[in-house]
Amino acid sequence: MDDKTVVKESTIQINIGLNAENIPIAMDWFSTDNPDKIDVAACKAMLLSLFDSDHKDTLKIDLWTNEMQVQEMDRFMFQTMRGLADTYFKATQNKDLAVDMQKFVQYFGEKTELIPKS
After folding, report:
1. How many Cα atoms are found within 13 Å in the side-chain-facing hemisphere of 103?
2. For the whole prediction, is pTM greater than 0.85?
């Protein structure tokens, strides 16, 4: 069997509840591969990026509910950027740039007072 043979499929479902002005007020998600076996999990924000291989462009959906607090958004962005730096390193092995990205994450965390100044 080669690396291009699909041996399993998984589904990720995201449900967005909108108010009359089309502003997200409720969000939840579900995955068939969720290791915690949770049927549906609520969330307040999501960032989805998909790379279109034909057009070499990134398609994005960024949504958050009207209940998302600024401090929660700061934490969400901090954790997301930290994860992106880790993902970038795993995918490219470019340690220098990954370290530079982590330095910005550190700066962001300090400026938003999520972490103490070093």
Report:
1. 6
2. yes
pLDDT (tens digit, 9 = 90+) per residue, 23-65?
999 999 999 888 776 789 999 999 999 999 999 999 999 999 9
CA distance 38 to 33: 10
Residue with tokens 């209940």: 67
DSSP string, the chain: --TT-------EEEEEEE-TTS-EEEEEEEETT-TT--S-EEESEEEEEEEETTTTEEEEEEEE-TT--HHHHHHHHHHHHHHHHHHHHHHH--HHHHHHHHHHHHHHHHHTTSS---
Q: What is the pLDDT of residue 1?
A: 66
Instruction: Report the DSSP beta bridge partners of residue 61.
Output: 48
Instruction: Return the closest-CA partner of residue 25 out of 35, 15, 34, 33.
Output: 15
- Contact at 8 Å (CB) between 55 and 79? no
Average pLDDT, the chain: 94
Sheet with 41-43, edge to edge strand ranges: 12-18, 24-31, 41-43
